[in-house]
Specification:
With 393 residues, this protein is of the alpha/beta class. Helices cover 41% and strands 15% of the residues. The protein is built from 16 helices and twelve strands.
Length: 393
């Protein structure tokens, strides 16, 4: 496939493999294994499989490979490995490269399950993890050491939408030879410039915007061919974290409309954020596209659009937030994001509920905070629904 194609073309065509039948839609190779013409061919394939040769679906599959090639082309990396979920991607990217005694520096503001991997799992196996305020470059400089193996961050944090300066953090990390791993799910493959800014490894929960219709779990690790095939793949294929062919087929279909959906959702998010910003019933409206966002200027240099996510902090805490949520008609109360349907989440009692109260407070996850994932409904209807929810307080 040509590398001169623009994003919209890559989202539709990159990575396509057609059988002898010349099908237009991507084919689902719904098989766990593959037959060989001879014992000698089987032996040769286990020694070294060719580009279009497969052994077992846990190792690779033609449909999965189409998805991997397409997302790598869109992200601007040499290769990708598709995983069973977004958390399998985060876990696989980190665990595959780390061993007891290694040191990792991570931004503190993370999704709850990411924090669990860094705080509990890696620590349990002897990896030292230092946490910093991701927006404070002095803290990154102080924490990164000559023996630091990797740094980890969310380019836009969940749920408070902090923007981390990927370029500056990458320069700090690369000075000691550390690998920069970026969870880019809020930024999306459409609006992100993570690789251009210095990220070595980019992970996504494909469950979110890539599928975009709440149908299936999936994740992906994007990086150099060396990292993907010699570091991540051996770990994931032997521990069972690979994506199913059917889910890969859903993700491929989701990618065809990814650009259209994300741009429409981001346009609505900006309109809703502006419509709520002056509402006296809110303590704050958090959206990188607003001038009031602390990293508004940085976001404009890192992203081609401010994204599909925003957050509001309701006066009156948890009780007021729950009254608002329970009064909504269009927005659905759920803990997913990036869906065609708009979703409202109360992080303090769901996605981040396991965190101690002091840690929630430090991260800005207040009792009144509601995370909003903007879908494809009419922006005016969505704003009106939120206003009705505020009226119910």
């Amino acid at each position: 496939m040509t590398k001169d194609w623009k994003l919209a073309t890559k989202l539709v065509h990159e990575g396509s493999r057609r059988s002898q039948y010349g099908e237009m839609a991507e084919a689902i190779f719904l098989t766990q294994g593959f037959a060989y013409d001879s014992a000698e061919q089987a032996e040769a394939r286990f020694i070294k499989a060719g580009e279009d040769e497969f052994i077992y679906a846990r190792y690779g599959n033609p449909t999965v490979r189409m998805f991997e090639d397409r997302i790598a082309a869109v992200e601007g990396t040499e290769d990708a490995f598709a995983t069973a979920s977004g958390m399998a991607a985060v876990n696989g990217a980190l665990t595959s490269m780390l061993k007891a005694g290694d040191h990792v520096v991570s931004a503190r503001a993370l999704f709850g399950s990411c924090l669990y991997i860094l705080e509990d799992i890696l620590g349990r196996f002897g990896v030292e993890v230092s946490f910093v305020d991701g927006t404070d470059l002095d803290q990154w400089r102080a924490a990164v050491r000559p023996d630091t193996k990797a740094v980890f961050l969310e380019s836009m944090s969940n749920p408070t939408l902090e923007i981390v300066d990927i370029k500056a953090v990458a320069e700090i990390a690369h000075a000691v030879g550390a690998t920069v791993v970026v969870d880019n799910v809020f930024a999306t493959p459409v609006f992100s410039r993570a690789v251009e800014l210095g990220a070595d490894v980019v992970v996504y929960s494909a469950t979110k915007h890539i599928d975009g219709q709440g149908r299936a779990l999936g994740g992906v690790i994007c990086g150099t061919r060396e990292f993907v095939r010699k570091v991540a793949e051996p770990y994931l294929k032997h521990t069972g974290g690979s994506m199913s062919p059917f889910n890969a087929w859903l993700m491929l279909n989701g990618m065809q409309t990814l650009g259209l959906r994300c741009r429409a959702m981001a346009e609505s998010a900006a309109s809703i954020a502006s419509g709520l910003e002056e509402d006296a019933r809110l303590l704050r409206v958090i959206y990188p596209g607003l001038a009031s966002h602390p990293q508004h200027a940085l976001a404009s240099t890192m992203l081609t659009a401010p994204g599909t996510m925003l957050a509001i902090d309701v006066k009156g805490g948890k009780d007021a937030a729950f009254r608002l949520l329970n009064a909504l008609e269009i927005w659905k109360i759920s803990n997913n994001l990036g869906d065609a349907k708009s979703i409202a989440t109360h992080p303090a009692t769901t996605t981040h509920q396991r965190l101690p109260e002091a840690q929630k407070a430090k991260l800005g996850i207040t009792p009144g905070l509601i995370r909003l994932s903007v879908g494809l409904e009419d922006a005016g209807d969505l704003l009106a629904d939120l206003k009705r929810g505020l009226d119910a307080i």
